[in-house]
Amino acid sequence: MTTDPFQSYMPQALALARQAADSGEVPVGAVIVRQGEIVGQGYNLTRTNNDPSAHAEIAAIRQACSALNTDRLEDCDLWVTLEPCTMCAGAIAHARIRRLYYGASDPKGGAVESGVNFFAASTCHHAPEVYAGFEESESASLLKGFFKNRRD
User: Fold this and answer.
1) Which residues of the chain have pLDDT under 50?
2) Which among 25, 37, 57, 136 is annotated as catalytic?
3) More exposed terminus of the chain, fewer Cβ within 10 Å: N or C?
4) Is residue 57 among the annotated active site residues?
């Protein structure tokens, strides 16, 4: 009998997204994994920190780089609940993240497979392997519920 060594870290990212929502932030969560261990995590804190760069991916990258004492995360994977924007895609490329797993697509603000398709640009120096659709319905549902509540 063989076992599949693949493990999804999207449940942890979703838990962080729920924390963001509970704080009044857009519910996006991210974790960075190296050799089966979470080395960085974060959720959106743009309003809390009055910082437009305080996206979940940026927080997770900063924490992982600090924990590993490096600016390169070549042997790390990023799990995030929403397709990264252009800013975050740039940070992912600069950090040399190995693989990107994300939940919901973002046709309006995404930059991986939507919008500018950042990693396909000739000026992009590093493109991670990209896998989309992990826990997509739950990720999308969190976002839709958050924005519906804000409109009501």
Assistant:
1) 1-3
2) 57
3) N
4) yes
